[in-house]
Specification:
This protein has helices spanning about 40-45, 70-80, 95-100, and strands spanning about 1-10, 10-20, 25, 50-55, 90. Helix content is about 25%, strand content about 30%. It has a single domain, classed as 3-Layer(aba) Sandwich (Rossmann fold). By secondary structure, the chain is α/β, with parallel strands linked by helices.
């Protein structure tokens, strides 16, 4: 997967995006990064695009990008806008649930 850094209004965020079909946004739980293996890459082989984002404070994603679930949801919207993605399917695991609800 291609790893990218984006300078958002709240700070730097690291994410990966790969695939050509409808986009699945995978939000991983606590202590997980964009590349923590949850067997999610199989979604790409099933015809989806996959967007994974490192949580605030992990990898190169700055803490300032998501001090609250609502703040991190805003940061994710900036990523979606940057990639010109209008809609996504969301999978949120554990501690990522509040961010998914905020989206």
């Amino acid at each position: 997967m291609t790893t990218m850094l984006l300078d958002t209004t709240k700070g730097i965020v690291e994410f990966t995006y790969k695939g050509v079909g409808p986009t699945v946004l995978l939000l991983k739980g606590g202590h997980s990064t964009r590349d923590t293996d949850l067997s999610h890459s199989s979604l790409i082989y099933e015809g989806f695009s996959l967007l994974t984002v490192s949580r605030p404070g992990y990898d190169y994603t700055e803490v300032s990008t998501g001090k609250t679930p609502e703040d991190f949801a805003d940061t994710i919207v900036e990523i979606l806008d940057h990639l010109a993605i209008d809609s996504v399917f969301v999978i949120a695991i554990s501690a990522a649930g509040p961010t998914a609800i905020a989206l």
